[in-house]
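Risk register update: the risk of archive-format incompatibility is retired. Evidence:
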Amino acid sequence: MTNLRRLIYSAPRGAKWSIVEERSMSVFRGQYYHTIDDKGRVIFPSRLREVFAEKSNGQIVVTKMNDYLMVFPHNEWEIIEEKVWHQSILRRQVRDFQRFFMSSAVDCTIDSQGRVLIPPNLREYAKLEKDIVLVGMLRNVEIWNRERFEGEMKKMGDQSDESGDFMDYMANLGI
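Archived output:
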């Protein structure tokens, strides 16, 4: 399990900053090549299961995004719902987002063997047939069709050679 330290700072007027709270945050990291079985079940690697267990007791939400699936611990999903809840439904962009992203979300549970049943409509959307890749994205996990993932990675690699986007992004992060 990977832990990041998040420091919460406080400073009264004119005083130096001081650490008032330190939290350990487990994050999702890595790429895991797996298969999805004939029943549509995905086995999550133990490293990912540990983070899901810590964050949400194995309760997760699966939804679709750009030809792959996104998997959130339930508590992270609640944060998204809260943010979307406060948006005006009179804005077309908000309604479109809710219709595409929010309405396709499904509550799932990681069973005692580390498996999650992916609903047929989501498997079909992401073209999850046999070979898949689970991708740790710090706060959530993506599930990709292996061919799509490798194509996307190649495309991103080719683009990063042609432009400085990745280098600019890393520089902006202070890396």
